[in-house]
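User: For a reading group we're discussing how well predicted structures match intuition. Take alpha-1,2-Mannosidase. Before you show the prediction, I'll give you the sequence so everyone sees exactly what went in.
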Amino acid sequence: MSSIVRRRGSNGGKSSSSDWATRLYNVVVGVNGVNGVYGGRGLTTLLRLSVIVYLAAVFLLAFLAGRQRLSSSDKGIIDRIISPSSLLRGGSPLMCRQRRPPVVVAVVKGDSSPLERYPYMTSPVDVDHDFSTYNPPGGNRFAEYKDGDAPYLITSATLHMSDELARSRRIHVANAMKHVWKNYRAVYGKDEMKPMTGNGSDRWGGMGTTLVDSLDTMWLIGLKDEFWEGRDHVRDHLRFDNVGYVSFFETTIRNLGGLLSAYEMSHDDVFLEKADELGKRLAKACDTPSGMPHGSVDLRAGKSNNQLWNGNDYILAEVGTHQLEFRYLSRATGKRDYADKSMRAFDVLRALQPSDGLLFEHITEGKNNRPAFANGKVSFGAMGDSAYEYMLKIWIQGGRKEVVYRRMYDKAMTGMHEQLLHKSSLSGLTYIANRIDCRIEHKMDHLVCFLPGALALGAYTDPLGLDSPRARRDLKTARSLAYTCYQMYARTSTGMAPEYVRFEDENDMVVPRDAPYSILRPEAVEAFYYLSTLTGDPIYREWGWEVFQSIEKFCKTKYGYGGLKDVDMAGSVEDRMESFFLAETLKYLYLLFDPDSEIDILNKVLCLHVFNTEAHPLRIFED
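Assistant: Thanks. Here is the predicted 3D structure of alpha-1,2-Mannosidase, as structure tokens, for the group to look at:
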């Protein structure tokens, strides 16, 4: 077995006549094909005709457009068409319209057409599957994915088999969530539960962070009784007037994001009322001369400050990772101030962005309270990562209309490709290095593994089209970088990834002495989810299943799941379970194996979502 040598940072839901026309059109033409499933023209006019004339016209339209249904014998590559009309139209932004069957996807146009069918399909997993028998298979497998190619023919039959296999796997991810929640009841309302002892702790201010962070995961998995029990706790016990200083960043993405997503899922006003109360208190951190939020905020007293450990500077990820949440809160409450404050901070980043698009980690207000960079480090890992993620997602959340933020993202991705993208000399693995002043640091955090998902999402929503050179570049990098992230897991004894790795000429992928641990981070399985959903390639479900089996065998405890002190040492479980393990890691794993999900990140249904950086799905605005 190959091994590795030794943070994260309104119509009230009623359908209009055109909706019914669109549904009728999809019944006739079929929505399991690929091209422009939302694209019927002149539907309103056609409704005025008789049913017979209407159906004949639709068949003629389908013929002229060259649309066709895909059968299980189809041998072609399935192309993805991005349709602007896939955005939610005419209705409350917080109410979901009728769901449509998913659109299957596969290889991007422009790839060389593979001839060999996908070869790695396996049998469905038994309900009583024994994870104790699992042995990590080792690294350097699936090397045909290393360079970002799409090596296999993915047919509709392949996708159907992959979906059936996935459904047998999602049961086990749901069981993992049930295992945790059964034991969390003993410390219900605590911020965290210790997986070795079952004790509770209030590490995040005593706001029930594990509960709030996990609400939408329970909803998506189908634990509705547990979800509504959590709602009652939020209504009756969640208070903020007795909470002192907390992290603005973590409280926004975990607590505020969790409340907003629970509201998005359930439309229960309890969650919105609590989110509004929390948002008012958090927004005090933005009352600075520049509009950039302080890193810490006292929810009780309404005070805020930056931390001494970072030289009293502002951190890039903190400045650029609260906009999705506050914009959604503005839309839901009608209070514009939330969005205005959050976007003022992001526009500071837009003004600071240099020609190469790459932003430094530390920012100061400088002389005369004018923001300026305070150091020379550029990283897509800790303290930088999610600011780049939100450049893309703000544009998506706004219905792809605020082009300045898409331009920020595209400029940053070009700078990343030109300055930070490297290949290891030994194995040819793609990785993203850091830049410190003019020096390259050949180190990659596990946190960087968010980037394949962002790159893939950016490629599939590229205004220039999926077959444009830019989108093809980004998707190829996404696939090759995802393979490196997979290798971070596959090359260890437990099949779990370390906190970060270094790339050295003589040893390739190296785990430094201060980074052998795992805290069950979600970024790799997040990338697998995006790539699986967008490209349709089943390989990402295989990689995710390997990760989940390792979690079950090496990280499961009597009460929950703990990280590992050393990913090359079985039995080194730590007595700590981050709330993001439930909010992100298990959620992305479940969605990876859930072809029937109500969540849509692109073009499958009329209810489109964008995830915040804590994996909380929020509705995209339709106007």
